[in-house]
């Protein structure tokens, strides 16, 4: 999953990677995100539940790469939600393999 993040007048492609393992159910988003990215955990969890989909049970880690680039804004919510649904087995990742999302200001 990829997200285009504007940097100055150019964009930067951000890869949204997901992983789920056994453990205490949690959602962690890593990759130098700001407060809006931290808050997306609650927005995404709520959106998945209100869409009548099952939120995966397990330890979820979402990585926003490259890690050295600061990320901000709620426009990462959709790629994060799709990554969660893919690693949870709700969506087929092959159907989303080349999907890209563009943020336009």
TrEMBL record:
Which superkingdom is the protein from?
A: Bacteria
What is the name of this protein? Magnesium chelatase
User: Do you know which InterPro entries this protein is assigned to?
Assistant: Ribosomal_Su5_D2-typ_SF, Ribsml_uS5_D2-typ_fold_subgr
């Amino acid at each position: 999953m990829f997200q285009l993040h504007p940097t100055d007048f150019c964009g930067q492609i951000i890869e949204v990677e997901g992983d789920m393992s056994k453990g205490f159910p949690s959602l962690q988003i890593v990759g130098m995100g700001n407060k809006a990215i931290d808050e997306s955990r609650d927005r995404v969890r709520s959106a998945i539940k209100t869409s009548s989909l099952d939120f995966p049970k397990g330890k979820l880690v979402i990585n926003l790469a490259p890690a050295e680039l600061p990320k901000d804004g709620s426009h990462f919510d959709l790629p994060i939600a799709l990554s969660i649904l893919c690693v949870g087995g709700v969506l087929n990742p092959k159907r989303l393999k080349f999907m890209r999302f563009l943020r336009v200001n």
